[in-house]
Amino acid sequence: MRLLLLALTPAVLLIGACEPARTPETQPPYPPTPDYAAEAKRAPGAIPEAFRGRWARDPEGCVVGGETRLVVEIDRLMFHESQGVVRALSTSPTNEVTIEADFEGEGESWSRKLRMVLSEDGQTLTIYDPDGTRTARIKCP
Fold first, then answer.
1. C-beta separation of 90 from 48 below 8 A
2. Strand partners, 117
3. Of 24, 41, 92, 130, whose CB count within 10 A is highest?
4. CB hemisphere CA count around 110 (13 angstroms)
5. Phi-psi map region of 51: left, alpha, beta (phi>0 left; psi -120 to 50 alpha)
6. What gap in Å lies between CA 135 and CA 141, rounded to an integer?
7. What dihedral do alpha carbons 60, 48, 97, 53 form, nearest 10°?
8. What percent of the chain has pLDDT over 70?
């Protein structure tokens, strides 16, 4: 078994060396833009994967319990003192989703519609409220 492994190692290394090296000219600056509309058709009501994760207004807010922290999951938004379950979702072919969610927090419940826009590099999430308020958050590590 050990002899077979030793015999195959050079072949595997040679095969791996056949791929051309990427140079700055051939390396794309960002990952390809996902097709958010196609992703939503596969899982209706699911927040696209690129939007999911932990977000905060600044690096200090990324800690557990940070007041500006937002956690986006497949079907819910969790803020510091409230969370919302997605009731309806629409996507655009670009980097934007509109979410209608039912929220609960601090003994109250309400519905809210949010438009979420993801930056091209996927590192900034801006949320627009219907009243025109917008809040930008960075992706937490």
1. no
2. 96, 126
3. 92
4. 8
5. alpha
6. 19
7. -10
8. 69
Most confident listed range (5-9, 45-49, 81-85): 81-85
Alpha-carbon separation of residue 64 from 27, 75, 95, 116 (angstroms): 35, 20, 27, 22
d(CA 35, CA 128): 21
Count of CB atoms within 10 A of residue 47's CB?
24
Looking at the predicted structure, is the pLDDT value of residue 123 above 50?
yes
Question: What is the reported pLDDT for 66?
Answer: 82
3-state SS of the chain is CHHHHHHHHHHHHHHHHCCCCCCCCCCCCCCCCCCHHHHHHHCCCCCCHHHCEEEECCHHHHCCCCCCCEEECCCEEECCCCEEEEEEEEECCCCEEEEEEEEEECCEEEEEEEEEEECCCCCEEEEECCCCCEEEEEECC
User: Rounded CA gap, 141 and 132, in Å?
Assistant: 29
Structure tokens at 53: 């994760």
